[in-house]
Amino acid sequence: MTALDTERLGRRAEAMLEELAAISEEPDRLTRRFLTPEHKRAAHLVGQWMAEAGMETAEDALGTVCGHYAKEGETPGANVVPRLLIGSHIDTVINAGKYDGMLGVVAGILTVEHFRDAGRRFPFAVDVLAFGDEEGVRFPTVLSSSAALAGRFEERWLAGADRDGVTLEEAMRGYGLDPAAIPTAAMRKDEALAYVEIHIEQGPVLEHDDQPLGVVTSIAGQNRTRVTVSGMAGHAGTVPMPLRQDALLAASEMMLAAEAIARTHPEAAMVATVGQTKVMPGAINVIPDRVEFVLDLRAASDPPRLAALREFVTRSEALAAARGCAVAFDTYHDCPTAPCAPWVADGLAESLTSLGLPAPRLVSGAGHDGQSIAHLTDFAMLFVRCRGGISHNPLESATVEDMGLAVAALIRFVEQFDPQRRA
User: Fold this and answer.
1) Could you report the per-residue pLDDT of 62-108, keeping only the tens digit for each?
2) Which end of the chain is more exposed for a tag (fewer CB within 10 A), N or C?
3) What is the pLDDT of residue 365?
């Protein structure tokens, strides 16, 4: 194996991430939501990079940019081509950092570029995938792009609307996609050999242990539940406190209950978060009569997570009743814990060892496209150390050195990849 210039790889990655981060819906911060014009511009740029790296490029029915690096002796137009999948996402949260998701796409492109320059092909194809809906920020969907690839897209998602009332179906048509063609995005199981993803850790473990890279063992299970609390509007100055049916106060108590429930399950590394609320009618001098919020509940194993959700529902119903309010629940996302395939994770660990690096193992508390792809094929992830464990934040940061090592590890993984190990 030839030596790899990790410094050059890291600097290339940083430059590409900087260029991609310049495509934003907002002038002073990075925000790029699914199926926006900015998403389309980013997808076009990524497709351009893929083509320059020697890949055939296409966009599937849900906007995923697909780069295909043909296997040795591949016949153009062949129906079934076994392929190793490498990918991540290019959508962001509101006011995001530039590494989350995008590093994995850039790392895949640089890996293929390396083999293009070396004139090297493999007995399998390599596909680089840039998903567009991993964050679930715009619509009440999560991982819909990778779900479509895995043949798990749910038609009911098309009716989900963003805050402006635009449905996913309408946004697809505006983007230039045909909702009726979504089934064509599904890949055959006999084509997908495995899926790997490079991603910043989004946590402090690697930095604490002074390690640049780590191999993921599993992704925590997650559910997102939309909670709607209904009360009675009234004048802020004339309705006595004992007679109020304040939806916001009831909702606030529910949020505190979610926190308390999560704290009782440290053994499952459970976390509960409410990061989005909508208060109506939204007037300063009117008691809120309707509140909507989304509870994001995660844990390292599914039974305690599901039990916690049931407890949250029971306690919320009691809290609502005590204030003369009603409450309704819609769990629109329920993703089970996804264990990484040992044979793929071991391959990543061996790639680190080949670079003279240790291969620590760790769990991902954040959700990733691998949870969808697990329904299609085996998967594993490689985490990259990020400063302070900060993510979903402009302060998100990874060093050029660590990114270069990550790309080098992915190159070594592809070189050593043997689908026969799956057996």
Assistant:
1) 999 999 999 999 988 777 899 999 999 999 999 999 999 999 999 99
2) C
3) 85
Fold of 221-335: Alpha-Beta Plaits (3.30.70)
Which of the residues in the chain have pLDDT under 50? none
Residue 68 structure tokens: 């295909």
Helices (H), 86-188: 102-118, 144-149, 168-175
List every span in the chain annotated with CATH 3.40.630.10. 6-220+338-422
CATH 3.30.70.360 positions along the chain are 221-335
What are the tokens at 47? 């497709």
How big, in percent rounded to 5, are the helix, strand and coil portions of the chain?
Answer: 40, 25, 40
Angle (CA) 307 312 315, round 5°: 125
What confidence score (pLDDT) does residue 41 get?
98
CA distances from 419 to 141, 188, 190, 344 (A): 32, 16, 12, 9
DSSP secondary structure string, 283-352? -TTB---EEEEEEEEEESSHHHHHHHHHHHHHHHHHHHHHTT-EEEEEEEEEE--EEPPHHHHHHHHHHH
**pLDDT computed for residue 177 by the predictor:** 98
Report pLDDT digits (tens) over 327-360.
999 999 898 899 999 999 999 999 999 999 999 9
Look up the pTM and report it.
0.83
List, in order, residues 6 or more apart from 5 with CB less than 8 Å away: 404
Amino acid in position 362 = L
What's the mean pLDDT when you consider all of the chain?
96
Q: Judge: domain 6-220+338-422, CATH 3.40.630.10.
A: yes
In order of 153, 202, 318, 375, the CA distances from 189 in angstroms are 15, 30, 46, 9
